[in-house]
Specification:
With 70 residues, the chain is α+β, with helices and mostly antiparallel strands. The chain has one domain. The chain has 2 helices and 3 strands, in the order E-E-E-H-H. Strands 1-2-3 form a 3-stranded antiparallel beta sheet, with helices on one face. The relative contact order is 0.18.
Amino acid sequence: MVMKLKVQVVKEEDGRFSVFVPGLPGCMAQGNTEEEALQSMKDLIPEYLECMTESAAKALPHVREILVVA
C-alpha cells in the first residue's frame, strides 16, 4: 500500500529532530538528523496502522487540503 501523509518536522532544543503525523494521533518519531527522523517515521507508520483497530481508524480526524488564493 502506498500512502501520502503530511508530517511536521520540529528541531528540538537539543538539536535532535521530532516528526509528527497530524492525521495519526500519537504517531511520533525522533532522530539525530532530519533524515534519520523521517526514516524512523517511515518505518513506524506501517506498525502504527497495523496496531489500529477498525473502530479506532474511524475515530481519526478527517484532514483535507484546501487551496487559498490571496
